[in-house]
Amino acid sequence: MTAQEYAFAVIAAVGSISAIAVVTARNVVHAALYLVVALLSVGATFLLLGAEFAGWVQILIYVGAIVILFLFGLMLTKAPIGRDTLDNNRRWLGALVAMGVFAGLVFLIQEAFPFDSEQFTVFRSTTQDVGESMFRHYVLPFEAISFLLLAALIGAIVLARKDEGN
Amino acid sequence: MIRLPFVLVFSTLLFSTGVYGVLARRNAVMVLMAIELMLNAVNVNLIAFSSALHDVGGQIFALFVIAVAAAEVGIGLAIVILLFRNRASINVDEVNLLKW
């Protein structure tokens, strides 16, 4: 175990507990706040893995924008409290499926990458590397994604505005 | 220095909590939050392999996934607000207009 692995263990424990709290919380606002902690721990994982730009984008976009959007969504709709109104009655079936997915994926991971495999040195990529690669090799996908964002923006405005007249 | 399977197991745990959230929640906003958890699990995998293989491409795909997630949340919440305006409820099991 190296220092990085200890740091990752702490981050992953915090992230896992808050992710489970997101899907089990009885209060929707609490769930949104647990989501902040889970997303922050994912961002910290990115920084630990040397992906500097993706880590800060994760913290800025997710915690700064998407969670605020969620809180607005909760504010504009009626937010009921309590397990029976938030979850459906067959949640044990969902828990069974989720545990099956987890067990199957962990089995496949330890087949492909055994837990005693050797450690890799973290690849530190700077924002310059990301920018050069993106605008040299991924220009067309970048344009496509910006068009998608524009379409989503217009679509959200058209959907959410009140109809006047007819 | 870090072992790859540790990161992959963390991502698997995030993904399966997301699966549970999508299946068990009735509130549409909570379902969207669980979808965010699943997208984040994919991003963790992409960044981990990008770091292990010393290739910046995985990080760029993670950025694309973040952009798609932002678009998805915007549209999703617009639909949820529209639903609340028309039906006064955002329980996904009460939305059966298109059900045959």
SS-derived structural category of chain A: mainly alpha
- The domain tally of chain A reads 2
CATH fold-level topology of the largest domain in chain A: Four Helix Bundle (Hemerythrin (Met), subunit A)
Write down the domain tally of chain B: 1
Order of helices and strands of chain B: HHH
Oligomer: heterodimer
Backbone CA Rg of chain B:
17 Å
Briefly, what CATH class of the largest domain in chain A? Mainly Alpha
Please indicate the percent range of residues of chain B in DSSP E strands (runs of 2 or more).
Answer: under 5%
Which of globular, elongated, flat, extended, rod-shaped describes the shape of chain A?
Answer: globular
Q: pLDDT average of chain A, as an integer?
A: 89
CATH domain fold name of chain B? Helix Hairpins
In the predicted model, the low-confidence regions of chain B spanning at least 5 consecutive residues are none
Order of helices and strands of chain A: HHHHHHH
Give the class-level CATH name of chain B.
Answer: Mainly Alpha
Largest sheet of chain A: none
With helices defined by DSSP (H or I, 4 residues minimum), what is the helix count of chain B?
3
What is the percentage of strand-forming residues of chain A?
A: under 5%
β-strand number of chain B: 0
What percent of the residues of chain B sit in helical stretches (DSSP H or I)? over 70%
Largest interface: A-B, 90 and 72 residues
What does this structure look like?
The complex is a heterodimer of chains A (166) and B (100). Chain A is an all-alpha fold and 166 residues long. Chain A has two domains: 3-125, NADH-ubiquinone/plastoquinone oxidoreductase chain 6, subunit NuoJ (Four Helix Bundle (Hemerythrin (Met), subunit A), Up-down Bundle), CATH 1.20.120; 126-166. Chain A is 77% helix and 0% strand. Chain A has seven helices and no strands. Chain A is globular. The model of chain A has no long low-confidence stretch (mean pLDDT 89). By secondary structure, chain B is mainly alpha-helical. The mean pLDDT of chain B is 90. The N and C termini of chain B lie far apart (55 Å). Chain B has one domain (4-91): Helix Hairpins (Orthogonal Bundle). The chains are: A mainly alpha (166), B mainly alpha (100). At the A-B interface, α1, α2, α3, α5 and α6 of A face α1, α2 and α3 of B.
